[in-house]
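Troubleshooting entry. Yesterday's outputs looked truncated, so today I'm pasting the complete records for two proteins to confirm everything comes through intact. If either block looks cut off, that's the bug. Protein one:
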Amino acid sequence: MDKISCIAIDDEPIALSIIAQFCERKGGMELKVFSDPQLGLEEILRSRPDLVFLDIEMNGMNGLGIARSLPRECCFIFTTAYIKYAFDGFELDTVDFLHKPFAYDRFSKAVDKAILRIRHLRNRRKEQKIIVKQEYMNVSIPLADIVYMEAMENYSKIFCSNKPCTLSRISLKKLQELLPPDDFIRIHRSYIVAVDKVTGFNKSEVHVLGGNTLPVGRRYVKDVILRIGNILK
């Protein structure tokens, strides 16, 4: 398995230092640490890491709120001194709950659980495909490659990472029916985007991998906020 990308958010520098030491000892983990919760959340939404280590009670922001704003594909592990939050954590589908102070062996077991989930998610995305017609040929497109789709009258253009776009005689509505709803979102009557390819957003536009900026239609704003994150501050 390739290295897993990780972000740790904790307002205690000592706690971040321990996580960094444990990640280095575990191996195969690329870690960024943030003592400012807001900056950490912004980096998560930008870089889409595989795994997040998240404290709960921090100055200025609650870790439970951050967990609710994480991209769907992000696994996360709570690291906190407050055992009273354990039930809330598991209700949010956390991989594990590390009660401070925790030893390396307990940390390693939690990471192993996360790796199993990450591997499953990666394999699922790699295997999923859609088949569309381009001219007179059936074209198979892996879902993991799709960045966004654009309506053009009775056609749709499918833009993929590192590949030429595919022009198919299929409506965007019909195309949306072929897609897993957890992984794609309609942001405009003319655009659907892959949630994990979003690099930034606000109420009027979405930025996607590759540098393109797409408009958000008025009727889709609430869904964008709920699905991609809380952008109303």
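Protein two, checking that the full record survives here as well:
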Amino acid sequence: MSRIPRVALKEVASIDRTIVEPSQIKPGTLFVGLENIESGGRFVNVRPVEAGELASSKFAFTPSHVLYGKLRPYLAKIARPDFAGVCSTDILPIKPGQELDRGYLTWTLLAPEMIALAASRATGANLPRLSPSALEEIQIPLPPLPEQRRIAAILDKADALRAKRRAALKKLDELTQSIFLDMFGDPATNPKGWPVTRVGAVARQIRGVTYSKGEASNEPREGYLPILRAGNITDGQIMIDDLIFVPAKRVSGEQLLRKNDVLIAASSGSMDVVGKAAKVQYDMEVAFGAFCKVLRPGNEVDPTFFASFFDTQHYRRRVSKLATGININNLRSEHLDNLELPNPPRELQSLFAAKAAVIAVWRSNYRRSLSLIDALFASLQHRAFRGEL
């Protein structure tokens, strides 16, 4: 680190908090909330908003900014937009100065050392935030501008390789759904005329754990159990990089996740989150919070077939119509129980499960490959941060 001079961020960049009132937000403006930035900097489900959809003030940003999620900075929600729009005020738009390359700044802020430093300076027990002034004081390494651009180009290329591997994984996920539709048809129209049952007739619904904010801990503690929330369900997977912990006495045995459970985000302020579902792959000593529900299938239905139903566009469309609320969208218990589910012969469901299992092996191999690429990227990022790249 001593090879590269370090400067406070405020010396080479500015935090641009240009307020946009709700009445000033034009229809079609792109909106970015924290849920639209993945850990590590990828945008997901960014969409234009309608007139009057946003009820509070936002920050404006352009393609020249870096967007920095100040809420729970340890989540590393830092991204480079290639579009203009407005963002949540829990996101700080940073404008690099003439001596600072935007790509280099992004990768520097995403370096594990910088994430740890930001997290250590955040304040607030349950919802830690990094203040703009604290962010401005963070020291960053500042090599000459040509060197910044060289480092950013190397990391961009390595990250592009990771993106290609993730895209391949997504294609495998789509293949499973394609086989489902080919074998069983679209559940919306049931073109093959299968008998129809209700979800509640083949799966038991389990409510999540209720707890007070004062009981929750951001760190593991003796006598506490990890708990998942709605935001932990992403792209059909359960993410465990942002857990909180609650007293074990709050958790019943059936509120621990079991293999073949379908975990559903039942309540959220975002319609992009509510209704998201993921199959649990193995028994876990992990519970789930009150904003989630679990559907635990019985012997009447194949678990893989059952879980794949919740990956269909038909299910997503039904959720968008059923989930209600003003500030919070809720998918109620009766909504889930009354969902109609095609019920083809069990042997056909089992054949689908066998095909899905083969794809799951491919997916597992791709994930291992991605893990190796991620490790390589982390090594490059660490060397760049220390001036050794």
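Both blocks look complete. Sanity check on protein two: The radius of gyration is 23 Å.
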